[in-house]
Amino acid sequence: METVILAVVIAVVVLGALGGLIVGSRRRKSLPPPPPKTPDITAPPAEPHVGDEAETPRDEPRRTIEEVDLPGGPAPVVVEEPPVVEAPEIEIPEPTAGRLVRLRTRLSRSQNALGKGLLTLLSREHLDEDTWEEIEDTLLTADVGVQPTQELVERLRERVRVLGTRTPEELRGLLRDELLTLVGTDVDRTVKTEPEDRKPGIVMVVGVNGTGKTTTTGKLARVLVADGRTVVLGAADTFRAAAADQLQTWGERVGAYTVRGPEAGDPASVAFDAVKEGKEMGVDVVLIDTAGRLHTKTGLMDELGKVKRVVEKHAPLDEVLLVLDATTGQNGLVQARVFAEVVDITGIVLTKLDGTAKGGIVVAVQRELGVPVKLIGLGEGADDLAPFEPEAFVDALIGD
Questions:
Q1: Residue 328 among known ligand-binding residues
Q2: Does the UniProt entry include the keyword Cytoplasm (predicted)?
Q3: I need a surface site. Which of 24, 76, 80, 260 has the fewest CB within 10 A?
Q4: What is the pTM of this model?
Q5: Residue ranges of the chain with pLDDT lower than 50?
């Protein structure tokens, strides 16, 4: 019995295994074969060029035989063209005629305290001693100077006493007349640049550093060019860094040639060469900018005297212009005295008269040196140097 049951179990297992094999084979037979893959088509290799690797042909720039570097040959020489240096544009300076009149408004803004102060005091109904003392203080504060102040007050006292009742118009006219007398209207204020027997005229500019000396020299060149003159500049200030560059820049703006020497070189030599060059070029004027001498240094002042003597080996100086900073007031007179002892000052240039300067310095410095103010600087602009005109100056002082 047991043998029969074991046989039956074995038969069932064998039949189950055979059934699984038959089903699996049928399933494999029923699945369709996968589609064939599209073969990758690769372009056939191109024929290689001679000396090149095989690759797809492409357009290539062709070189001439001159462009092909031959082995062992010399390196090509590259010729660089020099940079083009543009000449500076020549400026046309503003005409000098009436320049101070055009700048009158600017001058009056900074100077009318003097004129208006005097007019206010003189307009008082009773002019007692206290009032006259105030008038004196106003004049002294404006740097007119002690002696000129006393003279002006005495004349004003006399004229007011004779005039009696005073209208504002009469007072203005009275003050204008007296200030014109004090400033001086009968003085020759022309900058001498046209000697009768020779060319060029020679002008030397002197002064302490910081007064605007080199700038004034450049502006004076513009004034002369505006009047139709030809100019050579001599950069004899060899002790101050960049002074020669500054002067040359001023000259280039108006087409004036600048003679310069090495830094810390002999200023007398530069001045001598400038006059020589001016003669050879046939220009009208040579302007020589000298080093800013400290008036307390005897050796430096002696050097300035040497420059003058060397220049005069060519010809006498026609002008020696002393540049003074108008804002220094009475302190500028100390400088003026020492410079006058070393060189013969022929004219004065007052710079910075448009700021806090007091117009009375014009009177004081003329009285101190006995030479006229010929030019005044009224600002930082290139054309703000003006010939001094007493009438326009006094009108600016007392205002409208």
A1: no
A2: yes
A3: 80
A4: 0.74
A5: 29-31, 39, 50-52, 54, 295
